[in-house]
Design goal:
This protein is α/β, with parallel strands linked by helices. It contains 20 helices and ten strands. The strands form two sheets. The chain has an eight-stranded parallel beta barrel with strand order 3-4-5-6-7-8-9-10, surrounded by six helices. Strands 1-2 form a two-stranded antiparallel ribbon. α5 links the parallel β3 and β4. α3 packs across α4, α5 runs parallel beside α6 and α14 packs across α15. The longest helix has 22 residues. The protein starts with a helix and ends in a 6-residue tail after the last helix.
């Protein structure tokens, strides 16, 4: 059904979800999202028209299952994958896509920097039914023989359109980092930690010219309109350590992202804003409020944030703490961090661990926000635990395989799937069982 609708959209050209929403039309994508989210289709339409929600759905990704990113929708998570010059290949990236979808990533970003980038991206999109995002500067640099000084606006636009034609549903572009911000960077402990941001800095300082993504922004918008590619306006100056959080460099760039948001909306191009980074817990709420103010309530897409700098090997935990808080305060999508953050390229198991950590964070945020039905699965889990229904507990778990695996480590026999105890307390000291016996003996009834 969506294929027919997509063909119609292709025929219209320059017709984005935001365009239709502003015309009062509920698209098939909006209707699908409404059903999945349990929301009124008209609410979805209004939120997309207002810019508080995006539905990243490139017209060329025809087997995509539409999803929404916005404050009215469930908190979403993104998983990053990608090859480097040192590791991974097409088969490895396809395996990561399968893991991402198995464990519930809502979008996937292909951040490949090595190998045949077009072939990798083609395979990733072919195997994904969730939106795929990219950071085009990686391929732009790759196609410029890894020499940033060879980057031209023509080459930049050619790569962006090539990726749009392949079916990429959102681009991270580093258009808000301006030449005048370089003195602010010099005041930092860790300078620029964004790969795209550092490349833009190198280009601007080499030519002493303004950021080409900024000067060619209108041309980029035209490409996005044609294929309905959403923009994820990148935070080139996100803090890479707690000491740099919420500094002038970060916030000045955020103001420019707000200006670019309005320019994108004028062309009916959907936008979300990327955010930090490394941020102490006491600054997370303020960061969300500032983004909402500067960027006109466009959806906020945050990396973590990591709330401490000393957790290498466990950064998926340190960042999930910040991610849960950010989601609670109003971030719309959380970009996962794996245990290998700051250390190396993640493999499939790292992807699994990062996704589960962030599924926990996003779900916790939805409960804290009071989303309708968010806690239903938790209540069902509580009932299953109190009844010693082990198989039901496994079914309800975010990672059923891991839950069953841990249970089976100490009680592997099938008979223990009906036991009224686990190996933590054993049959004599189970608090559930003791409570149930008290209730039964004294004629008391639980909730």
């Amino acid at each position: 059904m969506r294929r027919e609708w997509v063909e119609k959209r292709k025929g219209d050209r320059c017709r984005t979800q935001m365009y239709y929403a502003r015309q009062g039309i509920v698209t098939e994508e909006m209707a699908y999202v409404a059903q999945v989210e349990g929301l009124d289709p008209e609410l979805i339409r209004k939120e997309v028209a207002r810019g508080r929600m995006i539905i990243p759905a490139n017209v060329n990704h025809t087997h995509l299952k539409p999803m929404a990113i916005g404050i009215a929708a469930r908190t979403k998570i993104n998983a990053n994958i990608g090859s480097s010059a040192l590791a991974s290949d097409i088969e490895g990236e396809v395996e990561k896509v399968k893991v991402c979808q198995k464990y519930g990533a809502d979008t996937i970003m292909d951040l490949s920097t090595g190998g045949d980038l077009d072939a990798i991206r083609e395979a990733v999109i072919a195997h994904a039914d969730v939106p795929i995002g990219t950071v085009p500067i990686y391929q732009i640099l790759h196609d410029c023989n890894n020499k940033i000084e060879e980057l031209t606006i023509d080459k930049m636009l050619e790569v962006i359109e090539r990726q749009a034609k392949q079916g990429v549903s959102y681009f991270t572009i580093h258009a808000g980092f301006l030449l005048r911000f370089m003195p602010l960077v010099a005041k930092r402990k860790m300078g620029i930690v964004s790969r795209g941001g550092s490349l833009m800095a190198a280009w601007m300082m080499h030519y002493h010219k303004e950021n080409p993504f900024y000067t060619a922004f209108d041309d980029i918008l035209e490409i996005c309109r044609q294929y309905d590619v959403s923009l994820s306006l990148g935070d080139s100056l996100r803090p890479g350590c707690l000491a740099d959080a919420s500094d002038d460099a970060q916030l000045e760039e955020l103001k420019v992202l707000g200006e670019l948001t309005l320019r994108a909306w004028e062309k009916d191009v959907q936008v979300m804003i990327e955010g930090p980074g490394h941020v102490p817990m006491n600054q997370i709420e303020r960061n969300i409020k500032i983004e909402r103010d500067y960027c006109h309530e466009a959806p906020f897409y945050v990396l973590g944030p990591l709330v401490t700098d000393i957790a290498p090997g466990y950064d998926h935990i340190g960042s999930a703490i910040g991610a849960a808080m950010a989601g609670w305060y109003g971030a719309s999508m959380l970009c996962y961090v794996t245990p290998k953050e700051h250390l190396g390229l993640p493999n499939a198991e790292d992807v699994r661990n990062g996704i589960i950590a962030y599924k926990i964070a996003a779900h916790a945020a939805d409960i804290a926000r009071g989303r309708k039905g968010a806690r239903d699965i938790d209540d069902a889990m509580s009932d299953a635990r109190y009844r010693f229904d082990w198989n039901r507990q496994f079914e309800l778990a975010l990672d059923p395989e891991r839950a069953r695996e841990f249970h089976d480590e100490t009680l592997p026999q099938e008979v223990f799937k009906e036991a009224e105890f686990c190996s933590m307390c054993g049959p004599k000291f189970c608090s559930y069982k003791i409570t149930q016996e008290i209730m039964e003996e004294h004629g008391l009834k639980g909730a």
